[in-house]
Amino acid sequence: MDTLRSLADHTIRRAMGCAAFSIALVMLMLAGRPLLAMQSGALMTAALWLGLWAAALRVPRMDLRGTRLWPVLAGENARKLRGPEGQRKMAAILAERLMWHADRAGMVALGLGGLTLAMFGFRFLPG
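Structure for DUF3899 domain-containing protein, as requested:
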């Protein structure tokens, strides 16, 4: 099952890498307005967190043969996971890894939001 966990991590990180690249490009395009760049980065990362969280909740009811993880499984592992017990194991591992990655994306979103407040928000507070 360690192989399945590492393959699930690989497919999730590949998708998150594309999302992170898109977020970084938007933030780079808005570099002339740093407040807007930081806010947009925080909001888009929070949207990524929400999407990962929703995907993790949806996994137990999905047909996992339609996921990006299924074609990566090769040979004997795919044969073991065809039955209902194998599908449950695969769904549990995939949901657990999605929640783990969602937690990390949420931390990044909170960090970007906190950095936005630290850099720009406190100067507008009264007092």
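The chain has one domain: 2-122.
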